[in-house]
Task: structure prediction
Amino acid sequence: MSIVWSSVTHLGRVRSVNQDRAHPTSGGRNDGPQLLVVADGMGGHVGGEIAASVAIEAALESEGTLEERVRQANRAIVEEVEEKPELTGMGTTMTMAEVGTDRRLRLAHVGDSRAYLLRSGVLVQLTIDHTLVAEYVAQGRLRADQASSHPQRSLLTRALGLETHLLVDTAEFQLKEGDRLLLCSDGLNSMLSDREITDLLDGDSTEEAAWRLVEAANLAGGHDNVTVVVADVR
Ligand code: MG
Result:
């Protein structure tokens, strides 16, 4: 078994700073296990960039389960803010995937970055957004088709860096040869529908698919930083 991935992050067409971060930062190939991460930072000035960078660094240095890595990333941001109070309010999403040598996929996730699985042309979202509108949809207070245009669609209910106690979603899936994984920041799925993402993600190399997604998000307006990690399981 091997995993082949490509990673692209882009400023978009509106923002002046890219506060998204990904790991790995470039493409590669590995026999596994392989970690893949997307973090979308928030917070004024340089806060968002710092939060996302600190979080990924701490998660990679940490040992243990993916959940423990995300918790360590959370603590690292909280400690950074304690040292530098001017960074108060900075935080980040984190969606982390690990593909094992047995093609076992483990996920740990906080925020509104997403993990998707494309299998035989069918796209499945593997994570649930931690946003106010996603909660409204789950409670039946809002229709799914109203969520994407809701004025508070970006309001997160969970993020790293804001509290010492953090609830982390975890999940496991068995992958198969031919599966394609996508991790992305909301700059992708806020600009493109799942139908469009499916069509753009399907086919060609991971690098071509990754760039096709980023270019389409920018063509659709590029309102936010956009980051994608596309990985094939072989
Ligand atoms: Mg974003």
